[in-house]
Design a protein that fits this description.
disordered N terminus, 168 residues, 6 helices, mainly alpha, 5% strand, single chain
Length: 168
């Protein structure tokens, strides 16, 4: 009798598992197909290059100031040397602070990235969520961010459906 009950419980459990549907998407593939994402990425690349150029020019100015100091060091009084060294250190700190302001995780580039890319990513997420609801999918994996998936049957790839849902 116990065997029959145990077998029944296992059968019901496996029946419930078979009813689950799984799919996957490749968000990297999807985002490459979205024109708004490409445009936002281009803007970010230009802004990053602009920031990098500004920071590099300021570092070069500090380096030039240091080289000038090195060449004139023997001619300067102790007080003048100290002033120049302090100026070099101060300017270097300013450049490092500027670099941090632009490139840190809370910097202007990260904020701009959030501003430009979040709406596109939200649109992709909404499309994935709608497809999951409409298709009764229990789980949808992202193979772009999950290298742990060893095999993906293309039959369950929902990436093109997401693009279709987004009108792309």
């Amino acid at each position: 009798m116990k065997r029959i009950i145990l077998f029944s419980i296992m059968l019901i459990s496996f029946a419930g598992l078979r009813a689950q549907k799984f799919g996957y998407v490749d968000t990297e593939y999807i985002l490459k197909k979205v024109p708004a994402y490409k445009s936002a990425q281009d803007q970010l690349d230009k802004l990053s290059a602009q920031y990098q150029k500004e920071v590099e020019s300021k570092y070069k100015a500090v380096d030039d100031l240091f080289k000038k100091y090195q060449s004139e060091k023997v001619l300067l009084t102790e007080d003048m040397r100290q002033k120049r060294e302090n100026e070099i250190v101060t300017r270097e700190k300013e450049v490092k602070e500027l670099q941090k302001t632009y490139f840190s995780p809370e910097g202007s580039l990260a904020k701009k990235r959030e501003e430009l890319l979040k709406p596109v990513q939200d649109k992709v997420y909404t499309a994935i969520k709608d497809i999951a609801s409409d298709g009764s999918y229990a789980t949808i994996f992202d193979v772009a961010n999950n290298p742990g998936m060893i095999y993906n049957n293309p039959r369950f790839d929902l990436s093109d459906k997401v693009l279709e849902k987004m009108g792309i």
